[in-house]
Amino acid sequence: MIERALLFTLFLIGFYGIVGKKHIIKKIFGLNILNNAAVILFILEGSRIGTDAPIMDGQASAIVDPVPQALMLTAIVIGVCITALSLALAVHLYRVSGSFDIDTIRMRIQDEA
Amino acid sequence: MRLEDLVYATIMLPLFGAAIALMGKLVHRNRAFAKTLEYIGAGIGLVLPWVGLTMLAPVVFSGGIVSGIVGNWYEGVGIAFRFDGLAWLIQILGYTIGLVAYIYSLGGGPRGPAFTTIFLIQTAALAATIITTDLFNLFVCLEVMGITSYVLIPTSKKPGASLAAFSYLMVSASAMVFFLIGTYGLYRLTGALSYEGIAEGLRTIGGRERLVSNMALTLLVSAVAIRVAVMPLYGWLPDAHALAPHAVSAVLSGVLIKTPLFALSRILGLFSNGPDVGHLMSIAGGITALVAVVIALSQQDAKRLLAYHSISQIGYVVAAWGMALQLGIDTALGISLMAAAYLHALFHAIFKGLLFLSVGTTIDITGERNVYALRNAVKIMRKAGERIPVTFITFLIGALAISALPPLNGFVSKNAITYAMKDSMLYHLLIAAGAGTVASFIKLSRIYLPGVPKLPMQRTPEGRRFKRVRLPSRWIAQITLALLCIAGGLWTPRLVSLVGRLIQPSFQGTLIIPALYSGENLLKTLWTALAGVLIYLVIQHPIPANLLHAIRTRPRNFKGLFVSFSLGTAGLAIWLLI
Amino acid sequence: MKENSKRSRYWSRFTTVIAIVAMAVVLLPIFLNDTSWPIEARDYLAHSGTEESGAINLVSAIYLGYRVFDTFGETIVLLVAVLGTMGMLSRVESLVDTSLEEEHTIGSVSGFSLTNEKRRSHALRTHLLEVVTGKIGPIVLLFGFYVMLYGHVSPGGGFQGGVIIASGIVFLALGNPQEGSSGISNPELLVRLESAAFLTLILVFFSGLLIGNGFFGNPLAHTQIPVGYIVILNAVIGMKVGTSLGFMCIAMMGGGS
Question: Judged by CB atoms within 8 Å, which residues 28-47 of C form the interface with A?
Fold first, then answer.
């Protein structure tokens, strides 16, 4: 219960980072935190039904649910790719407008365009 | 070849083509060989799937459904898929627009093996989204579709395009994380990831868990609704579609905002709450149609005007789709509405693609995007080498189609929608939106006609008024779409019932087919057109013009995207609870 | 003017709070849900996962067997991200470039660049870093290959191994005292390897067709070693992930092509 409350807080912190912060890199941090909170939630809750890792080497008796782990492998990699692409876009925006602040960028790009 | 293989061939072929085109990127020394590889890849990816679709046509037309698990694994863990009439129709839509837009890009758009690769991957992702019936697979397919858009939008090298791509990326990626939480909620309740498994698991849950399933459904619908860009979640679309390269704009507006909607209808059909969601979405769709047209009237950038019209037209589709879900896809009215929604989605893709491509050619040649500054474009294009005004004629066909004038395809699909909605309040919203559409296309067409511009025109750097561009592939693409517009208009009464039969093969009754050429309908069309002309004349006066100017320069920022997303999600949640 | 900006700041904070509260209301029931976690999937897999797929590691069995299509989608996302990052960054000079070096010129950090060494010097790129990462790099690479190839019997697999390989590549790039990149950290080579890995992956998936198992079916299902399919897939995915992530890191470090 306490873990889920903490994950909920983490989730909201990530969302606050995306919405409330003006610096683009902090927004990207927020997205990352959001992603990680979702991943941990899946894996943590899936691990409650067993005690051993899902490797059937003859000694495992009560294994955890392997399905969330497999799903989250995919989700983690997708999150990394999105982060990389957004960082590349952030670098490009910095070069074009000279600032990392989202409102300044919008203003300067609209002046140029 | 088994049927399942044929179904997956339509997805694997573009990916195979993408791999071959990518090989072209690595062959630096021999440019001709690299280009050959690229074209072979594009051919495999955009032309060969038509063979597959033709072979699947008999199956689908006789009411058969190809479904199963990918790779034939155990159904409780594996990925379920389903290829039925709806999937076939959406793939036809995706491959048509994809092929035509690619042909246009050979002459007018971004070139290069990287572009071809990503374009083919996007087409494959569209095909995969509509046949999947597994929630996590839908997540992966939507992410692939999304990431290809984020990469393709900045290829137009405009500075605003990177900002548009960044905003779209942020809002879409966070929406997908919420989708993931929704998946968590449903998996915890039911232990299944496939739609059937989830629906079955939800049949036996109690009160408190029903609240959880409602919230999970809210998150899923909201994440998909961002991609579809209904009010209030439309904020990313105008910048993204206006600043992308022309071929990419055509595909984005034509296919990428519709496929998630129809994929969502598979989910909602199995939930008991589906009709309520449909009801809310239909109201949102109607409001979108009208409000977006008003904002479109105020725009001065030609492509941005078209982008706002895309939002308005998707409002039509969502209104019909929502009402179809509300009434149930097994009633006559429900199927007719769903068929009308699909037809409008298809025809809108064709005429909006046509408009983006022809306006795009005009912008490339004249170097001017502002509709108040550009005049007499036909003459300028003739000087640039276009002896026969092909672009103007194709633009005119597109404009007549979107204004719903006979005998073009827009006339048919818009009337199919409004006819089936006769008894509801949405009818009036959509008719009003139709009048507004006519008005704004009169405004847009003025760029082709002679006249005095209100603002000075820009000149290209060499000082001339025009730029020479490569015309043949642009012409082929534009003419193809124009012919499809006309064909859609002429064939249509049979198309409605055909589509209806494909969507719901088990329905035995008769569908509601609009009486297109009845006196009443033609009179209504005439009134709408006249109202449009009247609106256009009204906005020339200073007071309405100032109002429109205020609408155009309203403050829009990044945070607004997220606030509207949160409020929309919360609104849907509250609606489901009541 | 001050009134205006104070008001707009309050409005801005207010809208942020509204956005967060709205989402929190929707998310709370899902987070607090206490339904017991479903066990059907786990029981089935514990019972028959190993014999159906051939792998002892059930997570590998899932993402390379039951749900291999999702894995394929994920490798496609990687490919598109690499192409996009490459396209964006090649329009830009790296941020670690000579204009920033004025603050950290050779005069002030002479200890970090010997006279006949030809490389850009940067305050953070110390000799300690170079020596350590240069020596550890090959070991990390080897460990990555091990994790990748043994994924079917121990925790590991293509993705985990690929990420370790990527960090090995980055170590080698950091540890390189020369200016240009060489060896495995060459961006050109990495992109080529990745495209080759993508083509190989597609051909492997098509190969299931030849045996009659359909796309994504196991072509080695009726031979001695059905688990060979999983090992091959692990290897190809590991190469793909390793080269992709390695390329993206090196591109951001300033070595983009």
Answer: 28, 31-32, 36-37, 39, 41-42, 45-46
